[in-house]
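From the methods appendix. Each design record in this collection lists the tokenized structure first, followed by the designed amino acid sequence. Records were kept in a plain field format so they could be parsed without special tools. The example shown here is representative of the layout used throughout.

RECORD:
FOLD TOKENS (62 positions):
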């Protein structure tokens, strides 16, 4: 089981980082990392240990 078991490619998620909040699209999912393309046109990869700290909501956003 990975921490990302409920997340699928192309899910929309909320990313909160460095006092900015944006909606992103999950691009790749690894056992220990997650890549998200955000609305501000960034592609970021987050390690599993950073997810709670970055407050990434791992549920689809309507």
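DESIGN:
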């Amino acid at each position: 089981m990975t921490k990302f078991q409920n997340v699928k490619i192309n899910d929309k998620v909320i990313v909160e980082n460095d006092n900015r909040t944006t909606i992103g699209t999950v691009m790749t999912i690894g056992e220990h990392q997650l890549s998200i393309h955000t609305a501000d046109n960034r592609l970021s990869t987050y390690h599993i240990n950073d997810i709670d700290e970055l407050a990434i909501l791992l549920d689809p956003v309507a």
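APPENDIX NOTE: Helices lie at 51-54.
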